Automatic annotation (TrEMBL):
<dbReference type="Pfam" id="PF01584">
    <property type="entry name" value="CheW"/>
</dbReference>
<dbReference type="InterPro" id="IPR002545">
    <property type="entry name" value="CheW-lke_dom"/>
</dbReference>
<protein>
    <submittedName>
        <fullName>Chemotaxis protein CheW</fullName>
    </submittedName>
</protein>
<dbReference type="GO" id="GO:0006935">
    <property type="term" value="P:chemotaxis"/>
</dbReference>
<feature type="domain" description="CheW-like">
    <location>
        <begin position="17"/>
        <end position="162"/>
    </location>
</feature>
<dbReference type="GO" id="GO:0005829">
    <property type="term" value="C:cytosol"/>
</dbReference>
<dbReference type="GO" id="GO:0007165">
    <property type="term" value="P:signal transduction"/>
</dbReference>
<dbReference type="InterPro" id="IPR036061">
    <property type="entry name" value="CheW-like_dom_sf"/>
</dbReference>
<dbReference type="InterPro" id="IPR039315">
    <property type="entry name" value="CheW"/>
</dbReference>
Length: 178
């Protein structure tokens, strides 16, 4: 083994790994840092909500918490949106932010993956600049023959979308001002 490869291997081993939960949307693999994922479960029954974006499938009771359920394939326009309920066996990843918890529907069981931080490259600027609100791509991870798009869960939704999903917070804030 040449010295440069040995040095690369040594750097690879001493580097702090990044823990991801990897899942498939459409034909691509996506990852979210494990610390942002609260749990993964079979998708519970979803109740449709009026006046929400089309990619918000509704709300569900997840272990006593009512959370919004989001279809990222629809949000990212990886397949056409429709009003049909999600069918078949799906899984929900509950993602926890500071002010809210959301559920993301995935079609396959998400898998944990540990990768070196250096394998995550910054997303190309042309992707990030397409829409000012779409800064949810943390980077692109390259592993052998795999490309994993690493998402920043905290930036998946715009502030306006978050407010739509938190009716209790807005109504209680209005009540406090009175």
């Amino acid at each position: 083994m040449p010295d440069s490869q040995a040095a690369d291997k040594k750097a690879y081993k001493s580097e702090v790994p990044v823990q991801l939960i990897v899942f498939r949307l459409g034909e691509e693999e996506y990852g979210i840092r494990i610390e942002q994922v609260k749990e993964v479960t079979l998708t519970p029954e979803i109740a449709r909500m009026p006046k929400t974006p089309r990619f918000v499938k509704g709300i569900a009771n997840l272990r006593g918490d009512i959370i919004a359920i989001i279809d990222l394939e629809e949000r990212f326009r990886l397949r056409p949106s429709n009003n049909d309920p999600v069918t078949g066996v799906t899984y929900t990843m509950a993602l926890e932010a500071k002010d809210y918890t959301i559920g993301i529907i995935v079609r396959e069981v998400p898998q944990p993956l540990s990768i070196p931080a250096s394998s995550i490259e910054k997303a190309p600027e042309f992707i990030q600049d397409l829409n000012v609100h779409d800064k949810y791509i943390e980077g692109i991870a390259r592993l052998e023959n795999r490309i994993i798009i690493v998402l920043d869960m905290l930036k998946l939704l715009t502030p306006e979308e978050i407010m739509q999903l938190k009716p209790k917070a807005t109504s209680s804030a209005a009540a406090e001002r009175r």
